[in-house]
């Protein structure tokens, strides 16, 4: 498996972002549901504007909607990832690799 330093070597971080500071293995590129933990994928044809759906079925037995867990853009972990709504940006911080994925929210 690839590591964060190998994958992002020589790249530049965008505004309000920081490349990984810890060399860790990049996990599989999968998303999981906040409620049940099952795998979910984004379906651009779901609902009016697209949305997350469970891989096994459109809806689970208890009828909850699929909502993807917050995850790190760089190492794909779902553990230790936090979202910050800052004054000028929205940012996702990862404690596993030290990366920050952020973007400006405008004036």
Structural account:
With 107 residues, this protein is mostly beta strands. The radius of gyration is 16 Å and the shape is globular. It has a three-stranded antiparallel sheet, with no helix packed on it. It has one helix spanning 4-8; strands spanning 31-32, 39-43, 51-54, 81-85, 89-94, 100-104. The mean pLDDT is 91. The termini are far apart. It has one helix and six strands; from the N terminus they run H-E-E-E-E-E-E. It has a domain at 1-28 and 80-107. Helices cover 5% and strands 25% of the residues.
Give the helix/strand layout.
Layout: H1 4-8, E1 31-32, E2 39-43, E3 51-54, E4 81-85, E5 89-94, E6 100-104
Antiparallel strand pairs: 1-2, 2-3, 4-5, 5-6
Brief descriptors of the model:
single chain; 107 residues; mainly beta; 3-stranded antiparallel sheet; 1 helix; 5% helix; 25% strand; globular
């Amino acid at each position: 498996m690839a590591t964060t330093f190998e994958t992002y070597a020589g790249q530049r971080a965008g505004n309000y972002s920081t490349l990984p500071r810890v060399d860790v293995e990049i996990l599989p590129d999968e998303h999981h549901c906040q409620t049940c933990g099952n795998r979910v994928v984004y379906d651009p044809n779901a609902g009016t504007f697209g949305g997350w759906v469970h891989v096994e079925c459109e809806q689970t037995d208890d009828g909850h909607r699929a909502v993807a867990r917050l995850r790190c853009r760089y190492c794909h972990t779902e553990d230790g990832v936090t979202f910050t709504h800052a004054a000028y940006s929205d940012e996702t911080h990862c404690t596993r690799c030290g990366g920050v994925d952020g973007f400006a929210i405008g004036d």
